[in-house]
Amino acid sequence: MKITKLKDSSIFLWFSFFCLLLSTSTSFARTTLPARFPSSFVSPEKLSSLSSSEKNQLYRTRYFTQILDHFNFYPKSYQTFQQRYLINDTHWGGAKSNAPIFVYTGNEGNIEWFAQNTGFLYETAPHFKALIVFIEHRFYGKSIPYGGNKEVAYSNATTLGYLSSTEALADYASLIIDLKKNLSATDSPVVVFGGSYGGMLAAWFRLKYPHVTIGALASSAPILNFENITSPYSFTNIVTQDFRSESENCYKVIKGSWEQIASTADQPGGLELLRNSFKICKNYISADYLEGWLRTAFTYTAMTDYPTPSNFLSPLPAFPVKQMCAAIDDPATGNDTFKKLYGAASVYYNYSGTVTCFDLDDDSDPHDLGGWSWQACTEMIMPTSGNTEESIFPASEWKYKYRAASCKRNFGIEPRPLWITTEFGGHDIERVLKRYGSNIIFFNGLRDPWSGGGVLKNISKSIVAIVAKEGAHHVDLRFKNSEDPDWLKEVRKQEINIIGNWISQYYHDLAQLY
């Protein structure tokens, strides 16, 4: 596959599909990082449809003076930056009663985006009389070192070198300890929560800082999605199964479409035919970008195949994979593959019906995700783009060397593919965590492509796996809905009961000390 137009090497993609594309395969090898496919090909929405007054009811914004480098003592290590966190004390029982503190360990993006899509904390806090805190990850949103100057912070490997999961975890520990001290709440138990990369951070935080948190809910956290642990074919195999489970014809149409798109693009007037078929804006089109646009839609939709309408990545109906396949199987489309694909893609990109054309040249980053390109080139080496012959996507093989070459050219650094498992573990996780870990909930929905790299079995009595056959990406953390299925209600009930036991045990242990 040949790129006819290379984009800027800053790849502003959300955790999921960025990894999918950057985990370079033999059929997608590049001399630079893969050309980006924007997270939104329509005019990007605001962070949420929530009004300002509604946001104010969810949280207040605060800042903490954070140190740049927690692990060295060079003079430059003591530089500081302002780290944003969001706080809600509406239902907090207060420090005198040692009421708990619920902390969300921020992901690779603007923390408001996650705070506005993590209803579980707000809906659970009243039951426990808990304080809610969402902490933004360094180098994302407004938590930018070097005086908040993103251009400087992202300028080279020297400045970006302070962007890592270990630094982020140390940030969270420092902020939590300081916040508890300022609130005179040193005996209040802390429970951490997170979804996706944030879920990985929550689990790792419990393992690395057990003196700061009593437990962690790690939702859709692929802590095993690293080399020699999880198959690089797992991710796309699950995407494939999601669509195939809805309709064999749907699966076959998508699988067979890639060759048809490529051959059409090579014909005289072929690109114009593709432009008209998919209503692509007139500023730019290429076969590669069109294919990426479609891949994004299929992958994101599989991840967010929620049982109720959602507006996390894009406005979507309930069961969007089913809706995509219904568009492909629609008899009115006849044998027109492009018409079928356009109908499916419109479920993701234009469910509102207001978009007149799709801009493949859109380089907007509405959720401040740009730093992930650095993390995916340093420590977060998560093979996900291998495709088997049965895959919905063209067959390909994961090759680390292509990723390494891309990262070297773009950042001048060599990835460390074994660092995460060296720092946090992962191999033989059942045997290892059983001996030293405790109080972690791993939730995974099996329709989520990332579930292949998740913990799917109980490790001990206190490290438990909750697995939902019909679940999608961190669906348990979303705001509840009157149309939620019974299985989802049961998942949340289980999580609340487990967290309640952690807190009760903490209070019991605390009482023994006084």
Automatic annotation (TrEMBL):
Record-linked InterPro entries: AB_hydrolase_fold, Peptidase_S28, Ser_carbopepase_S28_SKS
Keywords: Glycoprotein, Hydrolase, Protease, Signal
Superkingdom of origin organism: Eukaryota
A molecular function GO annotation: dipeptidyl-peptidase activity
GO BP: proteolysis
Protein family: Belongs to the peptidase S28 family.
Protein name: Lysosomal Pro-X carboxypeptidase
Organism: Malus domestica
